[in-house]
């Protein structure tokens, strides 16, 4: 059903008829030659994506669209960053084209994306440093904690501090600070 919905939305620019019966989906399009070519390209892309998704789900893995993860986060988010969080949590994950392949539950991955987006949003006026945002977002996502709990702990551990103008700044490299912060908060 999801496939048919995606086809309907994606082919809304052309006159189309979609027919489904016994696991077979037929798509008929009618219109100008250039629009028919565009529609056939879109259909092939959707078909390839769903075949890939089906093959991965048979192997017990999820294949999640990077675009959908960014939409869940509410910001443009690095899929490599999400993959790093999942790997840190003990899940297998890797990027395959524009998809994140993982053995983690789909809802968990979307929750991690939302947490990262929320942290970035809450720190928007507190820091210009991407290192501070990464450190706080990573720890908050791994431990499912509010961003300000993580910020307070990072300040207490002297991993981040406030500049004269009040903005947060890193005092140490965020990657080397990560284990210290997570160990401290996890206790």
How are the strands of the largest sheet arranged? 3-5-4
The termini sit apart by 45 Å
Q: Count of DSSP E strands?
A: 7
Elements, N to C (H/E) = HEEHEHHEEHHHEEH
Helix content: 55-70%
- Please, what is the average pLDDT? 88
| Biggest sheet statistics | 3 strands, antiparallel
Query: Which of globular, elongated, flat, extended, rod-shaped describes the shape?
Result: elongated
Counting structural domains, the number is 2
Radius of gyration in whole Å, from Cα?
A: 21 Å
The poorly predicted ranges are none
Strand content: 15-25%
Please state the structural category: alpha+beta
**Total number of helical segments?**
8
Walk me through the structure.
- The chain has 187 residues and is of the alpha+beta class.
- The chain folds into two domains: 57 residues, no CATH class; 125 residues, no CATH class.
- The chain is built from eight helices and seven strands; from the N terminus they run αββαβααββαααββα.
- Strands 3-5-4 form a three-stranded antiparallel β-sheet.
- Helix 3 packs across helix 5, helix 6 packs across helix 7 and helix 6 packs parallel to helix 8.
- The termini are far apart.
- The relative contact order is 0.08.
């Amino acid at each position: 059903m999801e496939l048919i919905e995606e086809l309907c939305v994606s082919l809304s620019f052309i006159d189309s008829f979609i027919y489904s019966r016994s696991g077979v989906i037929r798509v008929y399009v009618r219109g100008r030659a250039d629009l028919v070519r565009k529609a056939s390209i879109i259909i092939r892309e959707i078909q390839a994506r769903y075949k890939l998704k089906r093959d991965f789900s048979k192997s017990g893995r999820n294949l999640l669209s990077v675009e959908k993860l960014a939409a869940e986060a509410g910001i443009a988010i690095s899929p490599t960053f999400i993959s790093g969080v999942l790997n840190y949590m003990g899940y297998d994950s890797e990027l395959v084209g524009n998809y994140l392949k993982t053995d983690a539950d789909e809802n968990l991955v979307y929750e991690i994306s939302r947490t990262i987006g929320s942290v970035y949003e809450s720190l928007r006026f507190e820091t210009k440093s991407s290192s501070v945002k990464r450190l706080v977002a990573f720890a908050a996502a791994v431990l499912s904690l509010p961003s300000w709990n993580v910020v307070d702990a990072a300040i207490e551990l002297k991993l981040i501090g406030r500049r004269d103008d009040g903005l947060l700044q890193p005092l140490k490299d965020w990657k080397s600070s990560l284990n210290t912060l997570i160990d401290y908060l996890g206790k």
